[in-house]
Design a protein that fits this description.
The chain is mostly helical and 147 residues long. It is built from 5 helices and no strands. Helix 3 packs antiparallel against helix 4 and helix 3 runs antiparallel to helix 5. The protein is rod-shaped.
């Protein structure tokens, strides 16, 4: 009767050998593996976001440089060159016409430089879209795994 009872209690689950149980990772090891995987995934996503923001910052620097050139030309060079041009044109026409022509040329130069800088700034994407998409994909993957 005792052999009958022991057979019934083991019929629901078959005992595994100790060697097979030793090969299976413990729950603590599984949690550590998941935590390490999540940690490395987060680090990779942060690195991607940093690279993407750095790339966009380089574009922004080019646009800002164009605007800075326009500002420097307007503040430093325009008065001196304008005065010289007005004196030169005054030899062939009235002084006020010479001043208006020189001012118009500088307005055109400043407008073109400002337009160039503004067009470059429009291409800048301040949001790291690739990193955001990668994180969304990671979230979808985790949801599908139902961890």
């Amino acid at each position: 009767m005792t052999s009958d009872t022991s057979t019934r209690s083991n019929s629901g689950s078959t005992p595994r050998p100790a060697v097979e149980r030793a090969r299976e990772p413990s729950i603590g090891q599984l949690v550590n593996d998941v935590a390490a995987g999540v940690s490395s995934l987060v680090k990779a996503e942060i690195a991607l976001a940093k690279a993407e923001v750095a790339q966009e910052a380089k574009k922004a620097v080019a646009g800002v440089a164009g605007l800075a050139v326009a500002a420097a030309a307007g503040l430093m060079i325009v008065p001196l060159l304008s005065l010289a041009a007005v004196y030169a044109l005054r030899e062939v026409m009235a002084g006020y016409w010479a001043a208006l022509i020189v001012a118009g040329v500088w307005a055109l130069i400043a407008g073109i430089a400002g337009l160039f800088g503004a067009l470059r700034l429009r291409r800048v994407k301040p949001v790291p879209t690739q990193a955001i998409e990668a994180v969304k994909e990671d979230v979808r993957w985790v949801r599908d795994r139902k961890i």
